[in-house]
Amino acid sequence: MDDICLRKGGGLDRLLAIMARLRDPKTGCPWDIEQDFASIAPYTIEEAYEVADAIEREAWDELEGELGDLLLQVVYHARMGEEEGRFDFHAVAERVAQKMVDRHPHIWGDASRDKSAEQQVADWEAAKARERTGGVLDGVALGLPALLRAVKLQNRAARVGFDWPETGMVLDKLREEAAELVEARETLGPEALAEEMGDMLFVMANLARHLGVEPEGALRAANAKFERRFRSIEDALAAQGKTPAESDLAEMDALWDAAKRAEKTE
């Protein structure tokens, strides 16, 4: 008997059939049967980050597999939607296909293509705004990383004029928040300190937006730099037969500066 789940080259139809088999209440996988939207959502987020990580590292040999893992998440959610009579994979695909047509009148309509990429982005956001119901900030996903969500909230507010007109004012606000953070550290409790820290991070996100810097990417790069330099410290200490725990801050700080100098000469 021909089983599409075992048929190589079946592509998307094969993947859909595999998911249906895994979720079959009688013959499926016990783990897969137990899952719901909420339990699968963290895996969806994780797989999206793994795609971004492969791209960041230019690990093109890994990207195909990571994209497949992310596609599986869409198939998984679509299968659960079908089981509940809400939607299926084809409805999901049709909905996004229609959205792309509607949002590109310069391709599938009579609008002019003679626009910059920046203007296209502005038109896209304007189309999204027309489709939205509710308040200006409605629909900014709660599950986004906090830094990314901060920028999206600020962008939404800026579109209706709630924004500092120039970068210097954001820097002034940052200095103000830094002073309040110092005060909270010296005079207030942990809850107030956390609130002031959040305010400062929010302003930092706004500063990045005003400078045209994507803060998630900037922080990822800073993380990678820290890892690279700290590993240089570990390597230098290992050459002396030591570990970081057997060193002290002064020695490690000197090795950190050496790693910085080495990077600048490369």
From TrEMBL:
Residues 35-108, 171-229 form the NTP pyrophosphohydrolase MazG-like domain. InterPro entries: MazG-like_dom, NTP-PPase_MazG-like_C, NTP-PPase_MazG-like_N, NTP_PyrPHydrolase_MazG. Its EC number is 3.6.1.8. It catalyses: ATP + H2O = AMP + diphosphate + H(+). GO terms for biological process: dATP catabolic process; dGTP catabolic process; dTTP catabolic process; dUTP catabolic process; response to stress; TTP catabolic process; UTP catabolic process. One of its GO terms (molecular function) is ATP diphosphatase activity. It is an enzyme of class 3 (hydrolase). NCBIfam families: mazG, PRK09562.1. Belongs to the nucleoside triphosphate pyrophosphohydrolase family. This is Nucleoside triphosphate pyrophosphohydrolase. It comes from Jannaschia seohaensis.
